[in-house]
Amino acid sequence: xxxxxxxxxxxxxxxxxxxxxxxxxxxxxxxxxxxxxxxxxxxxxxxxxxxxxxxxxxxxxxxxxxxxxxxxxxxxxxxxxxxxxxxxxxxxxxxxxxxxxxxxxxxxxxxxxxxxxxxxxxxxxxxxxxxxxxxxxxxxxxxxxxxxxxxxxxxxxxxxxxxxxxxxxxxxxxxxxxxxxxxxxxxxxxxxxxxxxxxxxxxxxxxxxxxxxxxxxxxxxxxxxxxxxxxxxxxxxxxxxxxxxxxxxxxxxxxxxxxxxxxxxxxxxxxxxxxxxxxxxxxxxxxxxxxxxxxxxxxxxxxxxxxxxxxxxxxxxxxxxxxxxxxxxxxxxxxxxxxxxxxxxxxxxxxxxxxxxxxxxxxxxxxxxxxxxxxxxxxxxxxxxxxxxxxxxxxxxxxxxxxxxxxxxxxxxxxxxxxxxxxxxxxxxxxxxxxxxxxxxxxxxxxxxxxxxxxxxxxxxxxxxxxxxxxxxxxxxxxxxxxxxxxxxxxxxxxxxxxxxxxxxxxxxxxxxxxxxxxxxxxxxxxxxxxxxxxxxxxxxxxxxxxxxxxxxxxxxxxxxxxxxxxxxxxxxxxxxxxxxxxxxxxxxxxxxxxxxxxxxxxxxxxxxxxxxxxxxxxxxxxxxxxxxxxxxxxxxxxxxxxxxxxxxxxxxxxx
Length: 656
Ligand code: MSK
Hints:
The protein is α/β, with parallel strands linked by helices. It is 46% helix and 10% strand.
């Protein structure tokens, strides 16, 4: 069934009047296929697959289990629904962990190369962060040159992927109580590659067939992501490219510039993105752009690369993941350069309708129909310049009659809330601390903190405002929000991430935002940067007054439109770290009631947190708020304190 008339009520379609919907209507008029059309064409999607009741781990299959109990209850090998679903869950988390980890590995190699002077253009930008990581890794710093320290830190980071013994070094940044719990449960993560490889082994035919054991491994594996791969990516990127600080930017398709050579950078690893930023600062390239009739060169991001560029440079964000085809359809993009993850193959078809060039950059991620320019550490800036030249050369091929850039020039966003920045903004440079945050949570001005993370997609109605509606409701009731990934991308494009949006908050949160000067919805970066939220939680525990462990904190995590396998790994490491986590849409283990029960109830006993899956988006805010209020009750901070005026007798009791 073709999605002939896109409207705001069509599942997944953007809301009426939005820039996205206008582009979508235009694409429809021109007969250009989109994510939404292909989603409709896939209906009805495989019921077994949706319930996790399909197994094709060996060639005795594919096997299905009948959810209604009339047909087969087991696969050919005897594996039951729980094994089917738990194995798939673990494999998804393994793929997600591998993605974040491979991203981190690329950054670690770049750090080593930059320290050795083998990566022209790259250098250590944040020495303070380098020292912090060096200390955590036990690297000697006294009397040593910065590059020597950086090289050793980079090499130690690389060892985190494959060291034969020991556990992840960043685990020691978690509260002690959490570390002990992981140790007791036997889920302290070892080398990242080992956790991924063992997960693939366990899920191969005839190996681990106890769903409880598989879900336990999913915790250890995912912790290797949160406190390993993702955290390494975040921290090493900060060392190389700078730790984000509040910066003003713009977001939405309207950030593309009519008379400029527009380059879109899409994907996840900021290595090529940073190289392109360096390359475009070369005035000779601007002159070359002017020579072909453009006013200059404009860069914008899509997806998590957009988040990385926004939080570090204030470079405009054209949109989140589901907007990648729409960006091309503006007809104003000379070139889209991509690296890894969340880049849809359909782009190669979309660009055929316009003059846009699609360029892949890594040998591990090629797309049929795209041109390839290999980028490595040694030649990154050189390759970036070549790519920018390709964009300039392509400008004269633009067809002005096909250009449609939404008039709205993009919503303003203040981004760049790393956990260091939050700490600094709350306490100032000399007394940077989470004390004011904890105090304001304890006195009730802020009820708690909700982390919004994850993807966007075509499966749910109002596809461009679900996160926005959620955060509006949360902040109106005094819940502070921290966002990452495409969830943050969606919020950035809607104007909720500016300090002025404080007027939509409840009285308490508004007071705090006014005093500190922060927006009520904080943009913390890309999907690897969920590690920043883990550290923020740790710091809140260490600051005191909100319990002894992350699981005591009045916090929660949510992903409304999960899509990527990375989202499963993120959800599982949040839960294993003690954070109640809600996913919208379907659960990935729906057809296996025991696994579902374990994830949504049983894990609470083990790690003090659990998953919740809720299809009804409208119910999710209440779920999050109820959980946080329950935590507040347990901490005893929900008791309304009466204001007591001292009388003479009280004063006499005071010791002076
Ligand atoms: S890009 S993983 S759609 S957040 Fe990180 Fe967005 Fe989800 Fe990809």
